[in-house]
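May I ask for an example protein's residues together with how it folds?

___
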Amino acid sequence: MGQAWRPLIVPHGFDETVYLVVDCFGRRGCVWREAEIQHTDLETVITDLMAGQYSDPLHVIALNTTEGWARDVSVDVARQIQERADLAYEDIPSSLEEFVSYYVAPCHQLSRRRT
């Protein structure tokens, strides 16, 4: 008896790393933000974060189903946002202040405030 057939989860051509944002809306809770496939690359996610497209980001998760891994890349993204703001002599957008201060801090807390 052969192996059971399983459908492909990732369509052909979409085997790159995808970046998704957990965004929070206060008492309404947190959600995985919906995104078009072509807008899930790292550069687009960082650009959208800096443009204020997210309310209150909590995590940025990278995943690659072809390679079989997922990682919380929030620290790397927060550092990149801080670096870009510094290079442009701009303030970090208010929607990102808590995200960046939490993840860029030398020793961030184990838990993060969520209401």
In short: The first helix runs from residue 42 to 50.
